[in-house]
Amino acid sequence: MKRLYIFLLKTFLPLFFMTFGICLFIVLMQFLWKYVDDMVGKGIGIGVLAEMFFYAALSFVPMALPLAILLASLMTFGNLGEQLELLAMKSAGISLPRIMQPFIVLLAFVAVGAFFFQNNIIPLSQVKMYTLLSSVRDKSPELEIPESTFYSQISGFNVYVKKKDHDGLLHHLMIYDYSDGFNNAQVIVADSGRLKVSTDKQFLVLYLFDGRMFKNLRDQGEATEGGAVPYQKESFKSREILIRFDSEFHRADESAMQDRYVGKNLASLRTSIDSMTVRLDSVKESNAREVYAHSYRRDLNPTVDTSAAHAPAPQPTPETFDSLLAELSPERRTAYIQSARNTIEMIKADNEFQADILASDEKEMRRHHTEMHKKFTLSFACLIFFFIGAPLGAIIRKGGLGMPVVISVFLFIFYYVIDNIGFKMASNGMWQPWQGMWLSSAVLLPLGIFLTYKASNDSAILNADTYTEALKRIIGKRPTRKVERKEVIMYALDYAAWSRRITALDTDIKAYLQGSRRWLPYFRFWRQGGRDPEAERIARQLEDVVEEGRNSDRHLVLNKLMDYPILSGYDLVDFRMSPRAGRIMAWIFPVSLPIYLLSMIRRKLLLNDLRTTLRVSGEMQTLIPNDNS
Known about the structure:
With about 625 residues, this protein is of the alpha+beta class. The chain has helices at about 1-40, 45-60, 60-80, 85-90, 95-140, 255-260, 265-295, 320-325, 330-395, 405-425, 435, 440-455, 465-475, 495-515, 520-525, 535-550, 555-560, 580-585, 590-625, and strands spanning about 150, 155-165, 170-175, 185-195, 205-215, 230-245. Helices cover about 60% and strands about 10% of the residues.
């Protein structure tokens, strides 16, 4: 067994490392396609890009690892089944669960390692990756002004160049300077110019030749009579413009990202959740007290001293609010109502603001919860995908990168969709965080148990012939009868007695066809338990006739026997049912009615087969000799 386990592990590990590399490369390409617009044209160095892709590769290990385990286990057991090595192990008395033991032990260590990787390495890599990505996004793009297009990547300026020479000379420039606001914009038009970057890469130096400048003077004086705004017009032979443009790459501070949920391990997440829970509870209690303090209910039950020494004075009869309001003048009544409305709107706006703050804090706490559960779901998903991939490989017995890749991608997409649904539900507060994060595991775990059980029992659930035969039985399609001549005939066929049995069979079939109808009454069908005893008897009688005819030594007789149909469809339902159960079933219309209609279709095929039997029997009678010579 030790040598067998070493052989199995040597078969699995190269495939696992290969598929893991492929899966990690695919998710990295997805990352590149998603953020390629933020990287192109920024002049980012190779070192910075390599560092960001390294941290991205570490961050995407939780996505690539389960898919790699699924694909590797499927290919391993598919290759073993295709090369009959799995069959040889089973013939030696080694069951499939025993064959899976070394993989289970190995993947148990992988799952434990995945947990520690998710808890200790992933927070650091995600902080580094998102910080670098934010820094790349904030970096100013490389200065490459296109021809005949307004270039707006310089903050506060729009630059238009009609033509560029190879030596860097720009022709027919138009510059809109709105760095002081759109109402104080400047327009510069020049015949030619050159653009350079300062030595410290903090400024752009623009040299312009033969141009004019139009400047708005709105901020320097009032508009002239008639509403015209004064402006300044200037012509120049050469002019130098200095524009601030920081093209250096600056790394953002990592401390802000470290305080988020993506940068915390399990202990930090629990500490943050506890502190956030205490703070939210105190804020909710404080808000509730404030709402109660501004509510009229605080005066409904005043404390009254009912002792004899402090007997309350008689209270005047209270007047209603409407009566008091009616005694006021219209002006004061309007003022009071407007004041009350303003107070209510202010209280409402304040409550909505506090509710938004609470909703944001609660969402942040839910994200901490989901991140905490995610550290466990990765390890569990690795085990689940193995118990799905290994039995599937043993069942389909196809190795290579064909069928396993198709099945793996389909299952992983299904897992990814279910996992995203659960994550969205948990993040939005519609489900508890543990319900949303463990949804995908709860859906796939029964599938893994089912496939492992079926593969251990050598079930043919993925055999195409199994479903083809089942479909043929449903639609009533009969298999073809095959009759071969016997090498040794123990009992010679008595053609006279056999002819009489064929005649008796034809008589029973004609009687059945004359007394039967195409459609059985619905309740009679279910009272019989979905069976047809007379058709069953005729089918057995036909099989006896064919079995006796196999003892013939005449080729024409044997060939004609193959024309007899195999009678089926008399078992109108594919399960045994007592008459009492049939009566109960008759009243369950959503289930019983489709079964009844399908059975009647199969009954029609049975009647056609009985007519075919009569035709074949007539032809057989002509082939039977008159004597036994």
